Amino acid sequence: MYLIDGTTYNTDGVSDEFLWVNNCGYQAGDSDSLAIRRPSGRKDYQLIYLSGGSGFYFLDGQFRQVGAGSLVLYRPGEPQIYDYRAGCPHEGYWLHFTGTGAGQ
Q: On the CB side of 30, how many CA atoms lie within 13 Å of its CA?
């Protein structure tokens, strides 16, 4: 859910288009912690590119530190559990997408 101009939008969905970007953004910091917890995942794909620093992603049953230059892909329905921790700089871009061609 996102709040834009005072209106709440739910961007978690699927599209009949070949490729559809649900939303995207940029995240950076080093002083505040940010924890994402989507135990049931989302209906779309999420692609994260870490351009700097690192993040902590719950992969294969444990948290793993993932560094700059890495890509993380979550498929529909996969748990999305990850942290950006205070004192550990991070910089990255994220993209949620869907469509009939997304899984090919």
A: 8
